[in-house]
Amino acid sequence: MTNLKTITMFFFFLIYVTSLSSIIHCRTLIIPNGESLMESTCRRTPNYNVCIQSLKANPASSNADVNGLAQIMVKVMTSKANDAINMIHQLQRSGSSSQKKALSSCASKYNAILIGDIPQATEALQKGDPKFAEDGSNDAANEATFCENEFNGKSPLTKQNNAMHDVSVVTAAIVRNLL
Amino acid sequence: MGSSTTSNESNDIPCSYIPVPDSPDAAGAAVEPRRQVKGLFVIFCGMLVLISLVAFNGYYRASNNGHEQASLAAALTKIIVEESGSETVPASSRWQQAASRGVSAGVSEKTNRLFSSSNSNGEMYPWNNSMLSWQRTAFHFQPEKNWMNDPNGPLYYKGWYHFFYQYNPNGAIWGDIVWGHAISRDLIHWQHLPLAMVADQWYDKNGVWTGSATILPNGEIIMLYTGSTNESVQVQNLAYPADPSDPLLIDWVKYPSNPVLFPPPGIGATDFRDPTTAWLTSQGKWRITIGSKLNKTGIALVYDTVDFKTYEKIEGLLHAVPKTGMWECVDFFPVSKEVKNGLDTSINGAGVKHVMKVSLDDDRHDYYAIGTYDEKNVKFIADDVKNDVGIGLRYDYGVFYASKTFFDDSKARRVLWGWIGESDAEYADVAKGWASLQGIPRTVALDTKTGSNLLQWPVAEVESLRLRSDEFKDLKAKPGSVVPIDVGTATQLDIVAEFEIEKEELEKVTSESNVDKYNCESSGGAAQRGALGPFGLLVLADDGLSEYTPVYFYVVKGSDGNLKTSFCSDQSRSSVANDVVKKTFGSFVPVLEGEKFSVRILVDHSIVESFAQGGRTTVTSRVYPTRAIYGAARLFLFNNATDVSITASLKVWQMNSAFIRPYNPDQSN
Asked: Which family does it belong to (chain A) (predicted)?
């Protein structure tokens, strides 16, 4: 009888503690690990690693909401586009004539990413009409693929094009959560 | 909740409540064994509670995405709802919002390009100025340069049609949005006017977005539009003409006490936009609806007003459909069951059906449903709930979004505008310096023969552009044939065509068990041969057929001998360029007893608009050939069916330009 009382009170106590932790959201030994917003968002993109690495590199990501994470990714897109453009200029200077046309074509595609897709995506996220950010990111991924296809298998820009493509696709997937 | 002293209570104890056990003296010695059972029961319930709390806590953590503050009840409900509705997703994300219906892999159409497995010789086609400048249309509304999107506030006033539109004055991308303005006598010949409204107030600093016009019985014009404030909150604002005696309505005034509406409690700050034209209630108030969403349910909010300055939010929702996502550009209007005329937005009663239309943010398509407007309860009820708004019929199965109607009382018709975006790559838009068109305005009416869909048809005024015509009667096309239609150049055409399947051959064709299996969008386009299709026309084709755009019918014969017809537009071979959208668009089209297969096609450079069976199913597509341009563009009749010949009769007009240009007061027209 006394045992019963003790057991019951013990249960009461456990329940109380558990409820408390639910209410105040702190971790206890009994509770399984939760995920951060960054992790759960990146899970819903086609490339978790690219997503996590891109976001973690920016300290603002730990406090960002989904819109904020998307804006960080757009900044990463800018840096990948600049990487590609720098490489294109380098190759153009070293004067490979067989690739001249393709390089020039790639330059115009990356230019469109920098002056078209990225400003559109940034503005769409900042001003509150995210579908245009999804369109811009998807187009950037396409432009990178078009550039890669210019070289008929002998592309000197594969690394940069893949990076651009992968980061853009992740950005589009993050934006989709905002629609 | 005190504990009862009667022994019967022990069997009725609910598990969410742990009763304090009876004191030992209460029941007496005879109850001893029952007390032990009671004790075990208590322990058992206690463990259940504990375990469920632990489980809830863990799951809640995983689902916490900052949007929802889910209570225990809501979270449990969500599992049940989503598990029944969602596709296979990883367990941890099953808690997340369910994917909306109808979205193909979550990417917009502009980007879901087929990096042509069929065209992967890697040959990139460099766009040159000749090809790019050919893409500009001759008789579709577009500004002289830069980006355009949604149609805004269309109206007819003092002898002029007014058209406003979302415009970027600074580039060929979406951004810095303001209201462009143009006028016309006939919905076809447009003259550009100065910008009507720019982002000069805190409440529209981040965007002068979409809105609608209401013309009051005394002729006063009310414009309601969405502003994105300097903090990117979506609010509704009132504007009106500065000078109502100016038929050109050049200058506009924003109401000094804007905004007139802020997002209501429970609605996201960026989920509140695109106010509709107002309609009169039977109490003499004006009523508008604004689209929004709650989680992934698209909804339409309702407000009443007397003066358009102060509003009363009506309890409840005009309509809601789960899993459709954010509702943009809601439109709500009556159609007559009896006459072909359009109806003023305020009309209701017997002989009237209502149409609810939404633009789905999730998939960039415009959907509508026909139903009844229950004014008393402020509800729209779709006739066919399985095909409710957002999950059933679309205005157009191609590129057509953010559409909006207005009642043109000068001709008693309801006219539909739709934004036609680009289907090419951004770098081409940047190079050519512009992006987007408006479709040719269409009349909208109820199809009284079927009762279950609308009919859309290009406004009659477009026929004023017709120049010389060529007529072809009873052309026969055997299975697997292509027949040239000699009309000279073929980039600006109005085509009206009818097709018949050879009756005797049709009867011999074996029927299919699944008459619904053909789907334009997942089909192999015009190259996929069936017994009774595809057959139709090849537009924007070159002589060598290296580029062509088939607009076609595909018929399937069912076991009862009935035919089921699809109507499609196939862009997969529209261009040898690799960086344009190459999908096939279309849907089923009702073909009634005794009807021939009929189609009207407007070809205007990089836009093809096709209307089947008098406008029961329409498809608009953007096409970017590199060879089938200028004098090299041709028209063909084709029949790729295996078992039947078809007979076609068609009339083809060359279309004049509409000479859309800036307004010049000296050239009054």
From this structure: Belongs to the PMEI family.
